[in-house]
Structures are given as structure tokens and as C-alpha cells.
Amino acid sequence: MWGDWAKGATGQGAFRVLGKGNRAEGKVLEPVGVFEAPKQHGKYETGQLFLHSVFGYRGIVLFPWQARLYDRDVASPVTEKSENAAGHGSKEVKGKTHTYYQVLIDARDCPHISQRSQTEAVTFLANHDDSRALYAIPGLDYVSHEDILPYSSTDQVPIQHELFERFLMYDQTKVPPFVARDTLCAWQEKNHPWLELSDVHRETTENIRVTVIPFYMGMREAQNSHVYWWRYCIRLENLDSEVVQLRERHWRIFSLSGTLETVRGRGVVGREPVLSKEQPAFQYSSHVSLQASSGHMWGTFRFERPDGSHFDVRIPPFSLESNKDEKTPPSGLHW
């Protein structure tokens, strides 16, 4: 399949696998650089080149985010049940610090990963009369520390992206040899409230792991009321070898205003992805709006096995919180 990678030992070549199907003779290896040892401690620096360990694309690190990971698969010292705002029992989960990175995706790889991961998933509210209008920055992503496979390259422009040379410049005296321009620092500071990744929620049911990252997008006035918007990114991973297919979604959305909405539908974002050993993950983003400044979401995904049987996978409950010191959301790329 296109978008895999062939990994040698540290110091050996990093390759992209080009070709379709699973037959070895149908594949071509494209060298991209030399692998480096993954960091067990500390963070990757701005300018670090990498291959995504799951989706296989080439990318470069812009800057890190320190998030709080709420992993419901990890046993918590607190075993008592608690009632959340939606009124259903849930175990206490303590968050731990986890590093994510804002990255650029190589534009050459975007068409080949689009069936498994959206490449225009980072969206913003457009700043004009249409309160529902959104715009995206193509090829921008958030990547967990453990998904980074670092490599180095002698190419002075190793990543093709319209923002690469606007954000980064080559400096052979540095390691890695790509440093932030002032425009990257200014863009990060200007758009920080709408880019910031703060909470990550994770839960596994029957070897299907669901990871949710919510982002607050801002508030708009519509028909004399305030409408608050969030984006949420969801990653589904099959940790088993059995092939399964996502068939349905079932959401419960609780608003601080007291409303409880139920949403059911086929698949997600118009797709019913298959998760297999060869392609174990699928990632997408969607949006939700409330007429209140906060709320909660939770639910289930229904999957189908090869024998036609079904099972439900829990979506970990997560909060929708607005920024108290809200400023006007961006109306475009700010430099």
C-alpha cells in the first residue's frame, strides 16, 4: 500500500514505500533520509523531520504542545464511581502530561493518506457574516510524541508545503538544520487560542482504541444569541488482527443550558472505514456548536466483524470548554 515506510536501524536509510497492493514486486522504495534514534526523553525540536509511524507521511515539527492525557485504560487510584454532568456513571481519570507536536505534512503525501487521515482537519471560524463558515489550513496536523519516527536529510527543502519556507529556514550550523523564522513565532502567538491542544481523551473497547482531542474555535452571534463552536479530532485504532468496519455513530451532547441531544448516523464524515492489520487506523475531524459556553460529549461507535456480528465501542466522555479571555477568532492566516 502507498504510504508505508521501511525502517532500518538508527543511522540507516529511511524509505517511503510506493506502490499499491501487498505484493512486494509491486512496490518501489523511495529514500527520504537517514533514521535517527527516537527520543525516549525530552522533546523534538522545531525543524525535526519525521515519518508518521501510523499514517506514513513525511512531516516536519513546528512546535510542541503540552497536553493532559486522560487515559481510561490506565488504572486510577480512585476507584469510586462518579456522576458526570450528563448523569451517567464513569470512573475517575487522572490526566498526565503528554507531548504533541504541531506539524506540516508533505503535500506530496496528502493524496495518498486521505483515505485514512484528513489532511484539511485543522479548521477555523471565518470572520464574516456567515456564522457557520469555516476555513482550513491544508497539511497541518497534530502528532503524538510516540508517532514520530525522526530522520535527517541533506535536502535543504525536504518538505513540500506552501508554508515551509515561510515558517522555516535552512541553517547548516544547527541540529536539526531548520530553524523558525519570525513569521512562525508571530503566527503561533497570534493564533495560539485557536491552535492550542490542551486535553486528550482515550479509551479502548474490545481492542478498538478511540482517542478524542477537542478544540475550542470561538463564539459567533446568530439570531440575537451566542453560538459556541468546537472542533474535535477522533482517531480510531484497531489493536487486534481481526478486520472490523465502522458502521454507525451514536452521540450524546449535553449543553450547560440544560439540553441533551442525541445524534445517530451511518459511519463518520460520509465514510465507513475498515480497520485491518495493514491499515489499522482512521482519523477524522468534525464540529459541534452549542448555545452555551460549555458542555459534554460522549457516545459509541458500532463496528461490524467479518461474520456479520456487531459490537459497540465507547467514545470517552470529554468536556467542551470555551476560553474565558476570548478574543476575535482569526479571519485568515495571521503573520
UniProtKB/TrEMBL annotation:
GO terms for cellular component: mitochondrial nucleoid; nucleus. Residues 202-327 form the ApaG domain. It holds the Pfam family YccV-like. Transmembrane segments: none annotated. InterPro entries: ApaG_domain, ApaG_sf, Hemimethylated_DNA-bd_dom, Hemimethylated_DNA-bd_sf. It is found in: Mitochondrion matrix; Nucleus. Keywords: DNA damage, DNA repair, Mitochondrion, Nucleus, Phosphoprotein, Transit peptide. Involved in DNA damage tolerance by regulating translesion synthesis (TLS) of templates carrying DNA damage lesions such as 8oxoG and abasic sites. May act by stimulating activity of DNA polymerases involved in TLS, such as PRIMPOL and polymerase delta (POLD1). Interacts with PCNA and POLD2. Interacts with SSBP1. Interacts with PRIMPOL; leading to enhance DNA polymerase activity of PRIMPOL. Interacts with POLH. Interacts with POLD1; leading to stimulate DNA polymerase activity of POLD1. This is Polymerase delta-interacting protein 2. It comes from Patagioenas fasciata monilis.
